[in-house]
Design a protein that fits this description.
The protein has about 160 residues and is an alpha+beta fold. Among the domains are: about 70 residues, no CATH class; about 40 residues. The protein has two helices and five strands. The protein has a five-stranded antiparallel sheet, with no helix packed on it. The longest helix has 18 residues. The protein starts with a strand and ends in a 32-residue tail after the last helix. The relative contact order is 0.11.
């Protein structure tokens, strides 16, 4: 999957649907360089690809039996402050650790050469399993048997 740039020459709405993450909309996008493929957006109309404007995108071709699927994805330039969601807690902790480490570099507290090492320390700390495990209370012990069950004054049974 490589990053490409080309002028958009066609945008065709295909269909909409409802998924577990909300609505989706499928578009066929065509480019001046001859590439074309499906683009899935959360909104209709989609706002990333614009007619007659150059767009940066990736093209992913997959084979599914006798069908060839071509997926077009926009390359979005991040501002460095984005949040990531999803994935395992360990992966989320790694991303959080790296983000905190980068913030320390920006603040001038550590050098950029120290950033990965600091992120590793943060990640190790976040993923540490050193919390004490809750212990179940001991099971209550039954009272010791009495030789004379009739001599128990707390017994209020009528027999």
């Amino acid at each position: 999957m490589e990053t490409k740039k080309s002028k958009v020459t066609g945008i065709i709405f295909d269909k909409s649907g409802q998924g577990k993450n909300g609505p989706w909309h499928s578009f066929t996008i065509g480019f001046e360089n001859g590439d074309s493929g499906k683009y899935f957006a959360n909104a209709n109309p989609q706002t990333y690809f614009k007619m007659n404007e150059v767009a940066e995108y990736t093209k992913e071709v997959t084979q599914n039996g006798q069908y060839t699927n071509t997926k077009i994805s926009p390359v979005r330039q991040g501002n460095g402050g984005g949040k990531f969601f999803g994935g395992s807690p360990t992966a989320q902790n790694k991303r959080t650790a790296l983000e905190c480490s980068v913030q320390l570099v920006v603040a001038g507290k550590i050098t950029s050469e120290q950033a990965l090492g600091t992120a590793k320390k943060f990640s190790d700390w976040l993923n540490a399993d050193d919390q004490p495990k809750p212990q179940a209370p001991p099971a209550p012990q039954p009272p010791a048997p009495s030789d004379d069950f009739r001599s128990n004054p707390s017994d209020d049974l009528p027999f």
